[in-house]
Write a structure and sequence with these properties.
heterodimer; A: mainly alpha; Four Helix Bundle (Hemerythrin (Met), subunit A); 0% strand; disordered C terminus; B: mainly alpha; Helix Hairpins; 4 helices; 71% helix; Nuo/plastoQ_OxRdtase_6_NuoJ (chain A)
Chain lengths: 223, 129
């Protein structure tokens, strides 16, 4: 109801839109949203770790379709590229490198799952209640030019958001360096530890470091 | 489209991710749930940006710019998080969050999985990390 006078027909139209007569876009959004929500539920409840990552692909792809339905094209393709393309692949690599069990793992959920369920359901009820109560009559007009085409997004990004954009590139660089440092520390340890194996007395003060450095895989397998 | 549809979907996805973060035991599954929560926020940002760009003639497109920033930060977060999980797994032989109890307070200060020869190395690695 805050619109100016030229939008009055649109405003009247917004008042006429009811939940019982959905448009085609709304039906599509609802169906894809159900698939997305179901895939997210399976992701957090399945006992097979690799299946959780694959259902996460379905959830993220469904969200990309939702972005397309909201006419945010650039965000949709970025979502497909970065999330489905790289993040899920990284997660699968992580599952592989930590030797996740292939079949059903009985201890995928911790002991506090009922408390977690209580908290999540309470938060969901509160959020949905507040959101529906607040935005029950708000209508998004999806007609006209796309609100999130590459041209529009690029213009706003490089006209108003240049400084945060550059800061973000610095943050990505810092994350890159940090990930490399975190990953290669133990590797440098294991590379530097084999020479002291022959002269064991030298490293007597820290046997655990060399032990864990020489045969990390066997030691992890033995535990 | 009613704004309530994307807002409700975003709230449900956020709470699904919240349940996963609280209930999962494997660290990588917790990271997946964090990704779900971040995506719920992204959907909210995009929906409100589309609404405001039409209803309020907002040309700054802050929602979409912030969505792009969130996606980039989520990519950085997943890289760092997986590096930490792999370092912990390399030192402890497990990626279960329940077994990482070195800083736990209360009667049982040391969990069953933290004793042994690998403990000092893990502590050293964590202290330097």
């Amino acid at each position: 109801m805050r619109l100016a006078s030229p939008e009055m027909p649109l405003n009247l139209a917004a008042a006429q839109h009811g939940f019982l007569s959905p448009t085609g876009v709304e039906i599509a959004f609802l169906l894809v949203g159900l698939v997305t929500f179901g895939a997210a539920l399976v992701t957090v409840t399945t006992r097979q770790l690799v299946h959780a990552a694959l259902w996460l692909v379905v959830a993220l792809g469904g969200l990309a379709v939702e972005y397309l339905l909201l006419t945010a094209e650039f965000i949709a393709w970025v979502q497909v590229l970065i999330y489905v393309g790289s993040v899920v692949v990284l997660l699968l690599f992580g599952l592989m490198l930590t030797r996740a069990p292939i079949g059903r793992s009985p201890d995928a959920d911790s002991g506090n799952r009922w408390a977690a369920l209580t908290v999540a359901v309470a938060a969901a009820v509160a959020l949905v209640w507040v959101v529906v109560d607040a935005f029950r009559t708000t209508w998004i007009d999806l007609n006209g030019p796309a609100a999130g085409s590459t041209r529009v997004t690029g213009e706003s990004l490089f006209r108003h958001w240049v400084l945060p954009f550059e800061a973000l590139s610095v943050l990505l660089l810092a994350a890159l360096v940090g990930a490399i440092v975190l990953s290669r520390k133990a590797k440098a340890e294991s590379e530097s530890s084999p020479p002291p194996v022959n002269s064991r007395a030298v490293t007597e003060s820290s046997p655990s470091v060399t032990d864990s450095g020489i045969h990390p895989v066997e030691q992890e397998g033995a535990r | 489209m009613h704004l309530a549809y994307p807002a409700v979907l975003s709230a449900l996805l956020f709470c699904t991710g919240l349940y996963g973060v609280l209930a999962r035991r494997n660290a990588i599954l917790v990271l997946m749930s964090v990704e779900l929560m971040l995506n719920a926020v992204n959907l909210n940002l995009v929906a409100f940006d589309v609404w405001l760009s039409r209803a309020a003639r907002e040309t700054l497109h802050s929602g979409q710019a912030l969505t792009l920033f969130t996606i980039a930060i989520a990519a950085a977060e997943i890289g760092i998080g997986l590096a930490i999980v792999l370092a912990v797994y390399r030192n402890r032989g497990t990626s279960d969050i329940d077994k990482l109890r070195d800083t736990a307070e209360g009667p049982e200060t040391r969990g069953p999985g933290t004793e042994g020869p690998g403990s000092s190395a893990a502590e050293k690695a964590e202290a330097t990390a």
